[in-house]
Design a protein that fits this description.
The complex is a heterodimer.
Chain A lengths: L2 H23 L15 H10 L2 H18 L3 H21 L8 H24 L8 H37 L2
Helix pairs in contact in A: 1-2, 1-3, 1-6, 2-3, 2-6, 3-4, 4-5, 5-6
Chain B lengths: L1 H25 L6 E6 L2 E7 L7 E6 L4 E7 L2 E7 L5 H4 L10 E3 L4 E5 L6 H5 L1
Antiparallel strand pairs in B: 1-2, 1-7, 3-4, 4-5, 6-7
The chains are: A mainly alpha, B alpha+beta.
């Protein structure tokens, strides 16, 4: 691991952490429990598109751990890690099939699997199978938020292409 | 080409899940008996039809407290010390498709449908 890559990953981690904390302060826009745009997922997707998958995973896991230290605690950590991991696995599996302008597709699939992971953990923890019905409205919301995050990430990538072209080559060696 | 296919797929998914979730959210199937469960144990069993004057009680656990408000044919959470207050914004219990849940405190309030909780009662 060279220092350029270390710095790049550290910047992405702190960016996603700050975005996460700021987003947590915004009051919910719609009165649906559990609704979140998940802005920090755009950094995960950005890392997946620019770095190696292993490095993107490191950023995600570290973000979840540090974020649950700052807000939430143990049970929030369980939900974040289950949703985050499922989302990551799905996105990592399909991202190579799409171009950077098609990231919205990857992002929607990721958002849907993120919510499915969280609801499944909620069912396991509370042992109330009825909660699984909640996947339905969350999937509807995921399509919208996933689209938004995907477009955001594409814009982020297109804007940072100039900087990245110079440094990513050394980062990914 | 690929884009169009996915636009159609996601639009369909959105239409179906949106319709179904509107149906679920507005479904109102009141029953009489509700179960208040904390950490998977039934702590109270209330017959809402038999409640004449409203009252409230606290559910305390290792994780925190929730204040439950019970009145005739209605039950809801009115106060809690969790960070997100999702259980309060949920409002009153309408159907088992949307049970009242406080995830951080592992508290659930659902109608007793007679088959889910035999194990818990027998324990």
């Amino acid at each position: 691991m060279n220092s350029k890559k270390l710095v790049f990953m550290a910047i992405l981690l702190s960016l996603s952490l700050v975005i996460y904390i700021i987003e947590a302060q915004i009051p919910p826009l719609v009165p649906i429990p559990g609704f979140k745009i998940g802005l920090s997922n755009s950094i995960t997707l950005f890392a997946l598109a620019t770095l190696k998958k292993r490095d993107a995973l490191i950023i995600l896991v570290l973000r979840i751990i540090t974020a649950s230290v700052f807000s939430g605690g143990m049970s929030a950590f369980l939900y974040s890690i289950s949703g985050g991991m499922l989302c990551f696995i799905v996105e990592a599996l399909i991202i190579n099939l799409f171009t950077e302008k098609q990231l919205w597709i990857v992002s929607i699939f990721g958002a849907i699997s993120h919510n499915i992971g969280q609801v499944l953990v909620a069912v396991l923890i509370t042992k109330t199978p009825y909660i699984a019905w909640y996947i339905v409205p969350l999937t509807a919301i995921s399509v919208i938020t996933g689209l938004f995050i995907g477009i955001l990430t594409t814009m982020l990538l297109l804007h940072s292409n100039g900087i990245l072209k110079k440094s990513v080559k050394d980062i990914n060696t | 080409m690929k884009n169009k296919v996915f636009i159609i797929i996601f639009a369909t998914v959105l239409a179906i899940t949106g319709t179904v979730s509107l149906y679920i959210m507005h479904r109102h199937t009141p029953q009489s008996i509700v179960l208040v469960k904390s950490d998977n144990k039934i702590i109270r069993r209330i017959d809402l039809a038999a409640v004449t004057s409203p009252y409230e009680f606290d559910v305390k656990s290792d994780y925190g407290y929730n204040t439950v408000y019970v009145s005739h044919n209605s039950i809801k959470i009115i106060d809690a010390d969790c960070p997100d207050k999702i259980c309060i914004s949920h409002g009153e219990l309408k159907s088992n498709y949307s049970p009242i849940v406080c995830l951080p405190h592992k508290l659930t309030i659902i109608y007793d449908d007679g088959n889910t909780d035999i194990d818990v009662i027998a324990n």
